[in-house]
Amino acid sequence: MAGTDKSREFVYLPSPAVILCEPQLGENIGATARAMANFGLWDLRLVNPRDGWPNERAIASASRADHVTSRVRVFETVEAAIADLSLVYATTARRRDLQKEVLGPDVAAQRLATHIGKGGGAGLLFGRERWGLNNEEVALADAVVTLPVEAAFASLNIAQAVLVIAYEWRRETNGELPFATGTVEAASKDELTQLFAHIEEALDRAGFFTVPDKRPHVVNNLRTMLTRGNFSSQEVRTLHGIIAAIDRRHERPNPNRPKRQPEPAPEGD
Fold it and tell me: Average of pLDDT values for 209-230?
């Protein structure tokens, strides 16, 4: 979905931090930054990224989410990365032998919004590409967030998981769509009536109504279909133009049509 409005400036509103634990691929970090930017998140924290930071591949994959990548902070431990937060959710697709409340992404977003709305700091903890989070890391969290994925194929790319939860966060805190359905004024009844007449006259000239008794029924069906179209004035004018063009085409001699041979004169006696 393309459509970034480059004239708009990003507003740093209070939002949850995204903490990636020992990410390996720069491309995943960059895709995560982009997913965060899509839904208004900006606080990205890395715990011991394998290839260090800054990372050229990450910045390239972020697709101009510079307001996220330029603020990345790197920590040596998960404990240090979450030290300033008072609510942390760990994300995982696997059942853990821990007594932790399990939340879906929608409920997690609701609770994050409530907590941050009261001035608290909150974060989402994501694990490594290959095996996720260790139990010791999950134990540091207040609850577990998991997604309603297919059990036979539950593993998500980090950026995908971030995207889903970031979407729920955005929907909870600012669900307004970037644009609405067009407000083009509908054609007036008079315009539609004139269109009906134009179409019906053209069909009469073309010999469409082969059974005169059925004409009223066909006309009513046609008018019902056209009324359901909810056309604008411009669309009605376009239809008038189409009908007129078809009429002209119908009246214009076709050079490819075989000429009718004159009938021979009757022979005399």
Answer: 91
